[in-house]
Each structure stands twice: as C-alpha cells, then as structure tokens.
Amino acid sequence: MKQIFESDNICFVEVSELLVNDYLAMVNDEKNFTMFTGGRAKSYTEEQELRWVKKKLEEKAFVFSMLEKPGNRFIGNIELMHLKDTEGELGIGITAKMQNRGLGTEAVHAFTEYAMRKLGLKRIFLRTSPNNARAIHVYKKCGFREYDRTPEHVYMEIIR
What we know:
globular, alpha+beta
C-alpha cells in the first residue's frame, strides 16, 4: 500500500484491495456506521467493495485508508469529494474498534491541513447526522463551524 502522508499516529495510504475485508466490516456495521450514513437495505458484498476500490484508484480519487502506527491496524477511510475550484466535501468513516481513542480528531485535523496545503483549498464542508454528537464534537474541535441544520443533516465548514 502506497503511503501518501502521515500524522503522529496515522499513516494515510491509498485505498487497497488488501483492505476489503476491513472496509466491509466497517461499512456493514449497522450500529456504528450505517445508521449515520443514511442506512441501506442490504450489506455491501466483497465484489461491490472491490469494484469501489478499483474505481477510486482509476479516478485517482482523493480518498485514503488510515492505518494506526505502529502495527498498521485499520482505522477507517477519509475522503474529499465534490472537488470544485477551491472547495470540497469531507467524508470520514472509522471502524467501531478504533473509535474513542482520539484518532478521528487527529485524522480530520491532519487531512484538512493536507488538503488545504496540497490542493490549495480554501473551504472544506461536510454534513453529518444530527444524532452523531461524537462526530459534531470532533469537527468543532478541528475548527469546523455549523452553518445550517435540517432534521436530516448538520452542515459544517472550515474556511481559510
């Protein structure tokens, strides 16, 4: 797996077919992941996840898997989507086993800094479930501010 950058406790690497089982465990976790991402009727299959990895690599998408240092334990994925001019949308997923350890805060902070430096972004925005208090807390700690709220989403941004 090709490392792109790192922070104190996290290696940010290209998405990889080698991590498909980890991806599936995370994205099919109803209690800790799916309920915060809009839910869905069926779990993803290995074939669907492999197609996702290949597509992201072909597109040279700005999406990375996060591995804990040392030991390379899978933390989750982080992505910058809908890039346009000097802004993009942040998406992050962390596996249940790696939550509540400060890694989300470190990941969002490091990724935001990297995206603004590397791509020259001036604004990064996101949306999350109003029920995801932990995520909202992390985003605020990393400098994001709420700019809108609906019953389905909390919208936040960081501008530099």
